[in-house]
Amino acid sequence: MDAEKLKALQIDVDQKQRPHGSFWAIFAAVLAVVAVAIYFAWPRLKDQQRIKITGVKPPTNSSPQILASRAPRSETAAAAGTSTGKEDVVLTVSGYIVNRERIEISPRFLGVVKWIGVKKGDSVTNGQVVVQLDDAEYKARLLEMEGRVASAEAALERARLDFERVSQLARTDIESKKAQDDARTQLEGARADVKQAQGAYQLAKTYLDWTTIHSPINGVVLEKLVSPNELVVPQSFGGTRGPSTALLAVADLTDLQVEIDVNEADLSKISLQQKCRVSPEAYPDKVYPGSVAEIAPEANRAKGTLEIKVQIQNPDKFLTPELSAKVEFLK
Asked: If we measure between CA atoms, which residue out of 38, 43, 39, 40 comes closest to residue 75?
């Protein structure tokens, strides 16, 4: 009886083996579920853009720490409330650094360059002698005028003595009244001759002084336009082979501006004295404060632009005229 019960409880060998097909089906289903979960949990670019535009974060199973570590640095900084320094910029335009004033030193009369005491890039001070013109002719003229002054003064003294003598004789009726008047007239003429000679002397002295050329400002020599023994004139007479009309070009490198052309569609964003940031293209890490100093009164019809000049505050050696620079106009 007991043997029959044990035989009834015994499991057949064929029933112990489970079908392999059902096992692989379950495994594939689990794998598919995991893949779908990972796909929806992984942050994508569209989700990040959706966060920026709508401000609503899409549902995800990932933790905030994981999303923050996977997000780009700029997006993470924006989510954390960190300012990027661009929120106050209303317009960015590129232009060229220029000197506010470029001075070309010219002679006052035709002459020959005798000596030049500076070269390109040299620093100069106001009143410093930079060029000497040939002054031999003007020294001779000055000596001639000195002689004329001396001669006129001698004639004046002679006329004065003659007038005093005739006046004494006229009081004793030895000389007539007409002779006294003639002597007075000669005296006045002699005085006029002295003034004329003195004026000619001062003119000759002025011309002699003009042969020594001084720098009118504190600045830097931008360009040397002539060489020693070269003829220079105060104005051009036409043509390209004539004498030079300028000796040196100088400018103050502590007084710089950025010259830019602004599209007419952007003019409403710019006003006088508006604050700006200036950054030279050669040194993008250098930033200088500035302000709108000048807005041209007339636009360029062909280009549809208006010239704007931005004054740079506290420029240094990194700012070189004629290099390009980026200007950011602030709110």
From this structure: 43
